[in-house]
Amino acid sequence: MAKDLGKIYDAFCTTAVFCETVEKPLFRYFERYMESETRAEKMRAYGKFVAEIYALGGSLTDAVCRLLSEDENVFVKTAAREEPVKACIAQATKAELTAFSAFASLTLADFEADLKESGLPAFESKPIDLVAYYSERLKNIERHGYGIFATNGMFRFSDDKQIVPIRAADKIPMSHFVGYERERQAVVDNTLSFLQGKPAANVLLYGDAGAGKSSTVKAIANKYFDQGLRLIEIRKNQLCHLPLVMEKIAQNPLKFILFIDDLSFQQSDDDFSMLKAALEGSASARAENCLLYATSNRRHIVRETFADREGGDVHRNDTLQETLSLSERFGLTVYFSKPDKKLYLEIVEGLAKRKGIAFDADVATRAEAFALKRGNRSARCAEQFVDSLL
Fold it and tell me: What angle do CA 309, 314, 319 make, to 5 degrees?
């Protein structure tokens, strides 16, 4: 039996909790379909409606679930803070989710019956109880999150001071790596402690370029997305905004890694003190649900010149100790050293086998020549060599 499209549309007209969701294109095209006065207009609106479903993956049900999960409404924000929700809001939320359930379960047959037309563009859908779906997400809000954090794992802090999703985020998995298992495991163990609510440290991954420091952090964020971990990338020149970033996420039930890639300072950098304050946990630059993970090619993050050592500071030794000890304020420092020949060839062999390339003495010789030509061995160099064989 075909569903009553008019009844579903009427329910959307009075949406109060999910009012932002019904402003999305998917619902606007449905509104255009329902408001069309001529058959031609209705057919065109249906085409736009299905095109939007295709853009969201092809399933109407999955698209509605995603849009509802990303909605930052008063109900979910109050529940996430573990505060009581007013009965009228809870009642309205349930009623709206019931209407969304009917909408998300619409089929091609429902529209063909309404238009009295066959052969329309098809889309996928399935029956769903969105009241139960939403309730389950709330019970596990510390893993699912809400708003933009519900469906995205990596973010950046924009120049207009907003946290925005990285749409083409690096999906690198932990299985991608060969070598540096001990170093990588130290970062994984610290992250798991963080996710489990146990004591965890800010982390500095330092060492030679191309060893996989940044990729390690991103792979960890990907691996533990389902456990409520998110990554926000912050540039060094944005460190002055650390208090703002932490304020934005402080009440969020998820866990966050604030990631600073390729970190180094000149001694006179203004951002030095802000990072120092965050690492020391000052009240103005700290959120309980986040850690700082940074990568650097230098063990001592502050670049120092001979002129700095000969400077005119009366208490020069105190000044030097302050700048050189910034890295000590990270609770965990992990060194990714340049691989020796043995480790380099092990990485080449592992990557080659993964891509279906036989590894023999000739490939090993060519791999070593490839590294020498570029002036150094590294995990990145090994990957570039294997890619060149393809």
Answer: 50
Residues 198 and 298 in one domain: yes
Distance CA 124, CA 169 (A): 27
Residues 210, 79 share a domain: no
Q: Rounded to two decimals, what is the model's pTM?
A: 0.82
Per-residue pLDDT tens, the chain, 390 aa: give them: 567 899 999 999 999 999 999 999 999 999 999 999 999 999 999 999 999 999 999 999 999 999 999 999 999 999 998 899 999 999 999 999 999 999 999 999 999 999 999 999 999 999 999 999 999 999 999 999 999 999 999 999 999 999 999 988 889 899 888 888 899 999 999 999 999 999 999 999 988 877 889 999 999 999 999 999 999 999 988 888 888 999 999 889 999 999 998 887 665 556 666 676 666 655 555 678 999 999 987 655 555 444 444 554 444 454 444 445 566 678 899 998 888 888 888 888 888 888 888 888 888 888 888 888 887 888 888 888 888 887
Residues 376 and 331 in one domain: no
Helices 379-389 and 361-374: angle between axes, nearest 10 degrees? 120
Between CA 26 and CA 193 the distance in angstroms is 41
Domain of 77 in residue numbering reads as 5-147
